[in-house]
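Throughout our pipeline, every protein is held as a single compact record rather than as scattered files. Such a record has a labelled line for the sequence and another for the backbone structure tokens. This encoding replaces a full spatial description with a residue-level series of whole-number codes. For reference, a complete record is included directly beneath this paragraph.
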Amino acid sequence: MTDFAAVSGHGVRTTVDGQPVLLGNRKLMEAEEVALGELTRQAEGLAAQARTPMYVAVDGQAAGIVAVSDPIKADSREAIARLHAIGLKVAMLTGDNRATAQVVPKEVGIDEVSADMARQVDAAADRHRPGRQPRGSGVESINPCWGNCPIAAAGGRPSC
């Protein structure tokens, strides 16, 4: 593998055995003019199951699809319910596509979702990392899929 490069918010580009290889989202494939054909329908089905589809292209041709997902933490629904009980509205900002992003809020009770925001989510995560916001600022950050990050429901702050 040579010439490996991350394409922020879209995927990666590399060369394997002399052939250009792409792994990434639909936006990357469109930018590289890769025709996805039947893979688009498969991706829609995966997204409806809260799996993020990533396309693979080799030498400019669609070659396959890979799907990834974050398991929802068992206590997320309860934590979000406690936030609702104290009058807070819960929003989710995600880099996932809209179809994938709509599944998690329904399962855990999130009020609003904004999808396709990879760059904005990275910037917001950095700005709103626990300890960066003054107490009482009204800005809290919770990810219902963080597997190793217990949520302190009373304060709504991840403890990681």
In short: Confidence is low (pLDDT under 50) at residues 146-160. The chain has two domains: 2-68, 76-158. The longest helix spans residues 76-85. The domain at 2-68 is CATH 3.40.1110.10 (Calcium-transporting ATPase, cytoplasmic domain N).
